Amino acid sequence: MARHSRHEAGARRRPAAVIVGMMGAGKTRLGKEMSQMLGIGFADADQQIEDAIGMSIPKYFARHGEAAFREVERRTVAETLGSFDGIYALGGGAPMTPTVREALHDYAEHGGRVIYLLADPAEAMERARRGGGRPMLDGDADARWMALYEQRDPVYRQVANVIVRTHGMTPKTAARKMIEMTNEGIVHVDGAGIEPYDVRIGEGVLNHLPDVLGAGPVRVALIHTQSVQRHSDRARAILRKAGYQVSDIAIPDAEAGKTVQVADGIWQRLGNEGFTRSDAIVGLGGGACTDLAGFVAATWMRGIRYVNCPTSLLAMVDASTGGKTGVNTPQGKNLVGSFYTPAGVLADLRTLTSLPNDIFIEGLGEVAKSGFIRDPEILTILEDHADELRAFDGETFLDSPLKPVVAELIERTVRVKAHHVCADLKEAGLREFLNYGHTFGHAIEQLEHFRWRHGNAVAVGMVYAAELSNLTGHLDRPTVEYTYDLLDRLGLPTSWNGAGFDEVLALMHRDKKARGNTLRFVGLEEIGRPFHLDDPDPQAVREAFERVRQQA
Ligand SMILES: NC(=O)c1ccc[n+]([C@@H]2O[C@H](COP(=O)([O-])OP(=O)(O)OC[C@H]3O[C@@H](n4cnc5c(N)ncnc54)[C@H](O)[C@@H]3O)[C@@H](O)[C@H]2O)c1
Ligand SMILES: O=C(O)C(=O)C[C@@H](O)[C@H](O)[C@H](O)COP(=O)(O)O
């Protein structure tokens, strides 16, 4: 709740969190506990309603019936969602009203946290029975509770973006967990052909691994690089504690791990260790490692459950989301692969504590890309914090003022990514905009034999794309200059002179956006307005190359 919220200055009031869940789950008790810990207000919808109707809910039910009660509830909830900024607990049946669900959806879409409090059924039933005064439980209370639970559980899951299990916890521990989880950034990914999933961003989100994996898998292959051993040890401990049999698989670092030979070695291990279709893979590392792990998950038995745990800035903001998985071949980058949606993404800020400064900066290349193609606020944040970002130090990161800035940059960039992916999973049009800077960037990576980092290559690629857009009459000169200036301030490269034009051109023809002999780029008309630049004037293609080269 101490999230960086510069973009929300002047925004209307809204609850810090809304709690939903079954009768007896502890919504009021834990909501009050949370509000005390945070020093903010608490409101209980049932109490508000009783105050408004001037009688107890059972009495109102008896006199006017459920429909009348639900109407009062709907009005009360709608008004409170727009005017109250504390913790708000709803009655168990409130989310069953379609208009309340819509209001909650709108609240969550604008960054609100809807917590589904999932208590142990036996405990909750006992509490609900003890509390009395619940007209919905008239008759055999336990049987009624169970029947309502079966109806309501899917609805709670649909409206909530945070699910907290409180079984066996003291109220204080449960409230602390709820606060911790509401502090996480969540981006929901959904759309045609996508099994919906969440990208969770925050300190400690690796702890959700068992929740995302679920009860299905017996064996889990934890694929990682040695560079993130500290974090994979933590993930392994979480998985073992949750009862999974973990196969620890370390792969070669960076692009050396993103090959079909490495994938083949893992397929053999999965076969030897008896991995079935209900087992799972967790990929933990930079984008190269998670691309490879996702590819193995997509191909093993034609697809098994996959959880993506990115540990570099670039992997968090880009490679984690959208389901592109694959390997490189000697002919080019990412030429073999598949679109394979993960069951969830856990971007744990704690993993950034071991990230070297130059790899953090590389990640800013893809962050800036998202600013250029869709969210100018990202560029403003980059400008405002360029010096601190450039000086990133993993060791001090978690306690530094940079943490909320980076958390906001990650969440915003993932939102940009999700916007494109949700509308166009298989990259038929809109999603291609995410490839801004990549046509030239991928050629650099290939020609530099992957000694150049991806984000750095994309930075130069964006300069090339801006120059090309300018030369073809689409982009003004000040925006091209701004591109050079911003990338330079962030410590990213803006020029390259590693090969001749013909070699670059040949590779750009092999880019996945190319069609037949036609070169296709993503250009920019202005910040936030990318466009398809198909078959541009060959002179401009060459001249843009010369401009990028001359700076070197
Ligand atoms: N699937 C997608 O949509 C997508 C999107 C963008 C990029 N990518 C791919 O991702 C790769 C680039 O990702 P990257 O920049 O993360 O490269 P990377 O995976 O090579 O990681 C960079 C380096 O940082 C190390 N590292 C990562 N996290 C660390 C940590 N927490 N502590 C210490 N060291 C750490 C890695 O071991 C590696 O040496 C490229 O292969 C690119 O093609 C894929
Ligand atoms: O997700 C996408 O779509 C992208 O284009 C994101 C890119 O930033 C990313 O580098 C991706 O790996 C490129 O994919 P490719 O299909 O061009 O190889």
UniProtKB/TrEMBL annotation:
Residue sites binding substrate per the record: D46, R70, G92, R152
Subcellular localization, as worded in the UniProt entry: Cytoplasm
Coiled-coil residue spans: none
Molecular function terms, GO-annotated: 3-dehydroquinate synthase activity; ATP binding; magnesium ion binding; shikimate kinase activity
UniProt keyword list: Amino-acid biosynthesis, Aromatic amino acid biosynthesis, ATP-binding, Cobalt, Cytoplasm, Kinase, Lyase, Magnesium, Metal-binding, Multifunctional enzyme, NAD, Nucleotide-binding, Transferase, Zinc
Binding of Mg(2+), residues: T28
GO cellular component, one term: cytoplasm
Pathway note: Metabolic intermediate biosynthesis; chorismate biosynthesis; chorismate from D-erythrose 4-phosphate and phosphoenolpyruvate: step 5/7; Metabolic intermediate biosynthesis; chorismate biosynthesis; chorismate from D-erythrose 4-phosphate and phosphoenolpyruvate: step 2/7
Cofactor binding note: Binds 1 Mg(2+) ion per subunit.
List of residues binding NAD(+): 253-258, 287-291, 311-312, 324, 333
Predominant place of localization: cytoplasm
Catalytic activity: 7-phospho-2-dehydro-3-deoxy-D-arabino-heptonate = 3-dehydroquinate + phosphate; shikimate + ATP = 3-phosphoshikimate + ADP + H(+)
Cofactor: Mg(2+); NAD(+); Zn(2+); Co(2+)
Transferase is among the record's keywords: yes
Subunit structure, interactors included: Monomer.
PANTHER family in the cross-refs: 3-DEHYDROQUINATE SYNTHASE (PTHR43622), 3-DEHYDROQUINATE SYNTHASE, CHLOROPLASTIC (PTHR43622:SF7)
Protein family per UniProt: Belongs to the sugar phosphate cyclases superfamily. Dehydroquinate synthase family.
Biological function: Catalyzes the specific phosphorylation of the 3-hydroxyl group of shikimic acid using ATP as a cosubstrate.
Name listed for the protein in its UniProt record: Multifunctional fusion protein
Organism in which the protein naturally occurs: Bifidobacterium castoris
UniProt lineage: Bacteria, Bacillati, Actinomycetota, Actinomycetes, Bifidobacteriales
Gene name as annotated: aroB
